[in-house]
Amino acid sequence: MNVLVDTCIWSLSLRRNNQKDIREAGILKELIMDSRVSIIGAVRQELLSGISLPGHFNKLKDYLRAFPNITVNEADYECAAEYYNVCRKKGIQGSNTDFLICSVAMNRNMPIFTVDKDFIQFKKHIPILLYH
Fold it and tell me: Which of 3, 72, 91, 112 sits 20 to 30 Å CA-CA off 30?
């Protein structure tokens, strides 16, 4: 089963500043070696945004091209909006990208690999699976 990897995991893995980063990077490396990594365009965009050095930008862009985007469709966007609305009614805030990740993962029966604590709150109200 593929795993949808959140932006924060990619960032931690590329930085590796502390022990937790190393643990998460190791898990991501195993998923990559098993060809189980999935990504959406919005995550790719988040990862590439803000990189000011063209050399670093191009290197990361080339690296990420090994992971084709999951095609996001109308139903995914509609479901993401529904998830946003459900969580907002419960007082839980999240980004559009976070809810798109939830929607894409749920619609494809994939767990989400993240360390973003917001997803724990989302899980209480929407049907997502988290990868541990």
Answer: 72
